Structure of Glyoxalase:
Amino acid sequence: MINLRDILYVRLGTRDLEGAQKFCTEIVGLQAVERTADRLYLKSSASHHAVCYFQGEPGDHTVAFDIKDWSQLGAALAQLQSAGVPCGQGTAEEAADRHVEAFIWFNDPTGNRIEIVARPHDAGKRYFPSRDAGITGLGHVGLCTTDPARDQAFWLQHFNAMVSDWIGPCPLLRVNPRHHQMALFASQRKGIQHINFQVAEIDDIMKSWYFLQSQDIRIVFGPGRHPTSGGNFVYFEGHDEVIFEYSNSDRHIVGDLENYRPRQFPLHPTSFCMWGSKPDIAEFRD
Ligand SMILES: CC(C)c1ccc(C(=O)O)c(O)c1O
Ligand SMILES: [Fe+2]
Protein backbone atom coordinates (compact mmCIF):
# COMPACT_ATOMS: atom_id res chain seq x y z
CA MET A 1 0.00 0.00 0.00
CA ILE A 2 1.40 3.38 -1.02
CA ASN A 3 0.42 6.11 1.42
CA LEU A 4 -0.10 9.49 -0.19
CA ARG A 5 -0.46 12.67 1.86
CA ASP A 6 -2.01 15.25 -0.46
CA ILE A 7 -2.15 16.62 -3.97
CA LEU A 8 0.92 18.80 -4.53
CA TYR A 9 1.17 20.22 -8.04
CA VAL A 10 0.07 19.90 -11.62
CA ARG A 11 2.28 20.25 -14.70
CA LEU A 12 0.75 21.52 -17.92
CA GLY A 13 2.30 21.77 -21.38
CA THR A 14 1.66 24.98 -23.30
CA ARG A 15 2.90 26.68 -26.46
CA ASP A 16 2.25 30.09 -24.90
CA LEU A 17 3.96 30.61 -21.54
CA GLU A 18 3.32 34.35 -21.71
CA GLY A 19 -0.45 33.80 -22.12
CA ALA A 20 -0.42 31.24 -19.29
CA GLN A 21 1.32 33.72 -16.99
CA LYS A 22 -1.09 36.54 -17.82
CA PHE A 23 -4.18 34.37 -17.29
CA CYS A 24 -2.98 32.67 -14.10
CA THR A 25 -1.78 35.85 -12.40
CA GLU A 26 -4.32 38.42 -13.60
CA ILE A 27 -7.40 36.18 -13.68
CA VAL A 28 -6.93 33.08 -11.50
CA GLY A 29 -4.97 34.89 -8.79
CA LEU A 30 -1.88 32.68 -8.64
CA GLN A 31 1.56 34.13 -7.95
CA ALA A 32 4.33 33.67 -10.51
CA VAL A 33 7.43 32.65 -8.55
CA GLU A 34 9.83 31.65 -11.28
CA ARG A 35 10.00 32.09 -15.03
CA THR A 36 12.62 30.75 -17.43
CA ALA A 37 12.64 30.38 -21.22
CA ASP A 38 10.63 27.16 -21.00
CA ARG A 39 9.11 27.09 -17.51
CA LEU A 40 6.60 29.04 -15.44
CA TYR A 41 6.01 28.18 -11.78
CA LEU A 42 2.96 29.53 -9.95
CA LYS A 43 2.14 29.21 -6.29
CA SER A 44 -1.06 29.22 -4.24
CA SER A 45 0.21 28.38 -0.73
CA ALA A 46 3.44 27.87 1.21
CA SER A 47 4.60 25.17 -1.23
CA HIS A 48 7.09 26.21 -3.87
CA HIS A 49 4.48 25.87 -6.59
CA ALA A 50 1.07 24.40 -7.35
CA VAL A 51 1.26 24.76 -11.13
CA CYS A 52 4.20 24.39 -13.49
CA TYR A 53 3.66 25.26 -17.14
CA PHE A 54 6.35 23.96 -19.47
CA GLN A 55 6.96 24.65 -23.14
CA GLY A 56 5.25 21.67 -24.76
CA GLU A 57 2.01 20.20 -25.99
CA PRO A 58 -1.23 21.53 -24.48
CA GLY A 59 -2.95 18.44 -23.10
CA ASP A 60 0.33 17.00 -21.78
CA HIS A 61 -0.72 16.91 -18.12
CA THR A 62 0.77 15.50 -14.92
CA VAL A 63 -0.68 15.37 -11.40
CA ALA A 64 1.62 14.99 -8.38
CA PHE A 65 1.01 13.80 -4.83
CA ASP A 66 3.48 13.73 -1.99
CA ILE A 67 4.16 10.50 -0.16
CA LYS A 68 3.58 10.37 3.61
CA ASP A 69 6.88 8.68 4.42
CA TRP A 70 9.66 9.76 2.09
CA SER A 71 11.73 6.71 3.01
CA GLN A 72 9.07 4.55 1.30
CA LEU A 73 9.54 6.03 -2.19
CA GLY A 74 11.73 3.11 -3.34
CA ALA A 75 9.25 0.57 -1.97
CA ALA A 76 6.44 2.38 -3.80
CA LEU A 77 8.33 2.08 -7.09
CA ALA A 78 9.03 -1.61 -6.43
CA GLN A 79 5.33 -2.25 -5.74
CA LEU A 80 4.24 -0.58 -8.97
CA GLN A 81 6.93 -2.36 -10.97
CA SER A 82 5.96 -5.77 -9.62
CA ALA A 83 2.32 -5.07 -10.49
CA GLY A 84 3.34 -4.32 -14.09
CA VAL A 85 2.35 -0.65 -13.90
CA PRO A 86 4.33 1.56 -16.33
CA CYS A 87 6.56 3.53 -13.95
CA GLY A 88 10.03 4.89 -13.33
CA GLN A 89 12.28 7.01 -11.17
CA GLY A 90 12.88 10.69 -11.87
CA THR A 91 16.47 11.81 -12.43
CA ALA A 92 18.19 14.35 -10.18
CA GLU A 93 17.80 16.95 -12.95
CA GLU A 94 14.06 16.22 -13.25
CA ALA A 95 13.69 16.42 -9.46
CA ALA A 96 15.40 19.84 -9.47
CA ASP A 97 12.96 20.98 -12.17
CA ARG A 98 10.08 19.97 -9.85
CA HIS A 99 11.66 21.54 -6.74
CA VAL A 100 11.52 18.23 -4.86
CA GLU A 101 14.24 15.98 -3.43
CA ALA A 102 13.10 12.88 -5.32
CA PHE A 103 10.13 11.50 -7.25
CA ILE A 104 8.79 8.52 -9.12
CA TRP A 105 6.22 8.48 -11.89
CA PHE A 106 3.62 6.05 -13.19
CA ASN A 107 0.74 5.92 -15.65
CA ASP A 108 -2.72 5.06 -14.40
CA PRO A 109 -4.79 2.66 -16.55
CA THR A 110 -6.25 5.57 -18.57
CA GLY A 111 -2.69 6.74 -19.31
CA ASN A 112 -2.62 9.75 -16.98
CA ARG A 113 0.87 10.56 -15.79
CA ILE A 114 1.08 10.74 -12.01
CA GLU A 115 4.14 11.66 -9.95
CA ILE A 116 4.82 10.70 -6.34
CA VAL A 117 7.11 13.13 -4.63
CA ALA A 118 9.39 12.96 -1.60
CA ARG A 119 10.40 16.06 0.33
CA PRO A 120 8.87 18.80 -1.81
CA HIS A 121 10.37 22.21 -1.31
CA ASP A 122 8.56 24.80 0.70
CA ALA A 123 9.14 28.45 0.02
CA GLY A 124 10.76 31.03 2.25
CA LYS A 125 8.26 33.58 1.05
CA ARG A 126 4.54 33.37 1.61
CA TYR A 127 1.95 33.35 -1.17
CA PHE A 128 1.30 36.97 -2.16
CA PRO A 129 -0.90 37.22 -5.25
CA SER A 130 -1.53 40.31 -7.31
CA ARG A 131 -5.26 39.55 -7.44
CA ASP A 132 -7.03 38.67 -4.21
CA ALA A 133 -9.19 35.69 -5.25
CA GLY A 134 -9.22 34.35 -1.67
CA ILE A 135 -7.22 31.26 -2.67
CA THR A 136 -6.07 29.07 0.21
CA GLY A 137 -4.38 26.36 -1.88
CA LEU A 138 -4.62 23.66 -4.51
CA GLY A 139 -7.69 21.55 -3.68
CA HIS A 140 -8.14 18.77 -6.20
CA VAL A 141 -8.18 17.84 -9.86
CA GLY A 142 -10.91 16.42 -12.03
CA LEU A 143 -8.95 13.66 -13.75
CA CYS A 144 -10.27 12.13 -16.97
CA THR A 145 -10.85 8.41 -16.99
CA THR A 146 -11.91 6.21 -19.88
CA ASP A 147 -13.24 3.61 -17.39
CA PRO A 148 -14.19 4.91 -13.90
CA ALA A 149 -14.68 1.46 -12.31
CA ARG A 150 -11.32 0.18 -13.59
CA ASP A 151 -9.42 3.29 -12.48
CA GLN A 152 -11.15 3.38 -9.10
CA ALA A 153 -10.06 -0.24 -8.53
CA PHE A 154 -6.48 0.73 -9.49
CA TRP A 155 -6.36 3.62 -6.99
CA LEU A 156 -7.91 1.55 -4.19
CA GLN A 157 -5.61 -1.42 -4.81
CA HIS A 158 -2.28 0.41 -4.78
CA PHE A 159 -2.89 3.51 -2.69
CA ASN A 160 -4.54 4.70 0.52
CA ALA A 161 -7.26 6.22 -1.68
CA MET A 162 -10.84 5.94 -0.44
CA VAL A 163 -14.15 6.73 -2.08
CA SER A 164 -15.94 9.65 -0.40
CA ASP A 165 -18.93 9.67 -2.76
CA TRP A 166 -19.93 8.60 -6.27
CA ILE A 167 -21.76 10.59 -8.91
CA GLY A 168 -23.01 7.90 -11.28
CA PRO A 169 -19.97 5.65 -11.80
CA CYS A 170 -17.48 8.44 -11.03
CA PRO A 171 -15.77 8.36 -7.63
CA LEU A 172 -14.61 11.34 -5.62
CA LEU A 173 -11.42 10.00 -4.04
CA ARG A 174 -9.54 11.14 -0.96
CA VAL A 175 -6.13 10.27 0.48
CA ASN A 176 -6.65 12.41 3.60
CA PRO A 177 -9.70 13.59 5.56
CA ARG A 178 -10.61 16.35 3.09
CA HIS A 179 -13.53 15.22 0.95
CA HIS A 180 -11.55 14.62 -2.25
CA GLN A 181 -8.25 15.32 -3.93
CA MET A 182 -9.29 13.65 -7.16
CA ALA A 183 -12.61 13.39 -8.98
CA LEU A 184 -12.40 10.69 -11.64
CA PHE A 185 -14.26 12.13 -14.56
CA ALA A 186 -15.68 9.87 -17.31
CA SER A 187 -14.29 10.99 -20.66
CA GLN A 188 -13.00 9.78 -24.02
CA ARG A 189 -9.58 11.28 -23.29
CA LYS A 190 -6.87 11.34 -20.66
CA GLY A 191 -5.63 14.43 -18.83
CA ILE A 192 -6.84 16.98 -16.34
CA GLN A 193 -10.47 18.02 -16.76
CA HIS A 194 -10.35 20.76 -14.14
CA ILE A 195 -8.04 22.21 -11.53
CA ASN A 196 -9.64 23.23 -8.24
CA PHE A 197 -8.34 25.96 -5.97
CA GLN A 198 -9.90 26.24 -2.57
CA VAL A 199 -11.01 29.70 -1.51
CA ALA A 200 -11.76 30.95 1.97
CA GLU A 201 -15.48 31.67 1.79
CA ILE A 202 -18.57 32.01 -0.35
CA ASP A 203 -17.90 35.74 -0.75
CA ASP A 204 -14.76 34.82 -2.71
CA ILE A 205 -16.81 32.68 -5.10
CA MET A 206 -19.34 35.43 -5.72
CA LYS A 207 -16.75 38.20 -5.97
CA SER A 208 -14.87 36.12 -8.55
CA TRP A 209 -18.08 35.39 -10.43
CA TYR A 210 -18.60 39.15 -10.93
CA PHE A 211 -14.90 39.71 -11.65
CA LEU A 212 -14.70 36.89 -14.24
CA GLN A 213 -17.74 38.24 -16.06
CA SER A 214 -16.24 41.74 -16.09
CA GLN A 215 -13.15 40.25 -17.79
CA ASP A 216 -15.25 38.32 -20.38
CA ILE A 217 -14.07 34.97 -19.04
CA ARG A 218 -16.30 32.05 -20.03
CA ILE A 219 -18.07 30.74 -16.92
CA VAL A 220 -18.82 27.06 -17.55
CA PHE A 221 -20.64 26.12 -14.34
CA GLY A 222 -22.05 28.01 -11.39
CA PRO A 223 -22.17 29.76 -9.13
CA GLY A 224 -23.61 26.77 -7.34
CA ARG A 225 -23.17 24.30 -4.51
CA HIS A 226 -22.00 20.69 -4.70
CA PRO A 227 -24.15 18.31 -2.63
CA THR A 228 -21.14 15.97 -2.42
CA SER A 229 -18.41 18.12 -0.81
CA GLY A 230 -20.83 20.83 0.29
CA GLY A 231 -18.65 23.44 -1.41
CA ASN A 232 -19.92 26.52 -3.17
CA PHE A 233 -18.30 26.73 -6.57
CA VAL A 234 -17.72 28.51 -9.86
CA TYR A 235 -15.93 26.96 -12.87
CA PHE A 236 -14.41 28.94 -15.72
CA GLU A 237 -12.41 28.27 -18.84
CA GLY A 238 -8.76 29.20 -18.79
CA HIS A 239 -5.59 29.16 -20.83
CA ASP A 240 -5.45 26.29 -23.39
CA GLU A 241 -9.11 25.54 -22.52
CA VAL A 242 -8.16 24.07 -19.13
CA ILE A 243 -11.05 24.54 -16.71
CA PHE A 244 -10.44 26.10 -13.30
CA GLU A 245 -12.75 25.76 -10.32
CA TYR A 246 -12.90 27.82 -7.16
CA SER A 247 -14.71 26.19 -4.27
CA ASN A 248 -14.88 26.37 -0.50
CA SER A 249 -15.46 22.69 0.27
CA ASP A 250 -15.15 22.12 3.99
CA ARG A 251 -16.45 18.55 4.28
CA HIS A 252 -14.01 16.26 6.06
CA ILE A 253 -14.49 12.50 6.42
CA VAL A 254 -13.48 11.80 10.02
CA GLY A 255 -14.62 9.69 12.97
CA ASP A 256 -15.91 6.16 12.55
CA LEU A 257 -14.27 5.39 9.20
CA GLU A 258 -15.06 1.67 9.53
CA ASN A 259 -18.73 2.51 9.19
CA TYR A 260 -18.45 5.35 6.69
CA ARG A 261 -20.52 4.61 3.61
CA PRO A 262 -19.77 6.61 0.44
CA ARG A 263 -22.99 8.13 -0.84
CA GLN A 264 -24.21 7.20 -4.31
CA PHE A 265 -25.56 10.20 -6.19
CA PRO A 266 -27.33 9.52 -9.49
CA LEU A 267 -25.93 10.88 -12.76
CA HIS A 268 -28.33 13.82 -12.73
CA PRO A 269 -27.83 17.62 -12.72
CA THR A 270 -28.99 17.87 -9.08
CA SER A 271 -26.02 15.68 -8.09
CA PHE A 272 -23.61 18.27 -9.45
CA CYS A 273 -25.37 21.36 -8.16
CA MET A 274 -28.03 21.58 -5.46
CA TRP A 275 -28.94 25.16 -6.49
CA GLY A 276 -29.94 24.26 -10.07
CA SER A 277 -26.95 25.61 -12.02
CA LYS A 278 -26.36 23.68 -15.27
CA PRO A 279 -22.81 22.93 -16.49
CA ASP A 280 -21.63 23.99 -19.93
CA ILE A 281 -18.78 21.46 -19.98
CA ALA A 282 -18.03 19.14 -22.94
CA GLU A 283 -17.94 15.94 -20.86
CA PHE A 284 -21.39 16.66 -19.42
CA ARG A 285 -22.85 17.24 -22.87
CA ASP A 286 -21.58 13.92 -24.35
C1 LIG B 1 -18.47 18.19 -11.56
C2 LIG B 1 -17.40 17.45 -10.86
C3 LIG B 1 -17.13 16.05 -11.21
C4 LIG B 1 -17.45 17.66 -9.37
C5 LIG B 1 -18.44 17.11 -8.58
C6 LIG B 1 -18.43 17.35 -7.21
C7 LIG B 1 -17.45 18.14 -6.64
C8 LIG B 1 -17.45 18.43 -5.18
O1 LIG B 1 -18.17 17.74 -4.46
O2 LIG B 1 -16.75 19.36 -4.73
C9 LIG B 1 -16.45 18.70 -7.45
O3 LIG B 1 -15.49 19.47 -6.97
C10 LIG B 1 -16.47 18.45 -8.83
O4 LIG B 1 -15.53 19.02 -9.58
FE1 LIG C 1 -14.02 19.93 -8.61
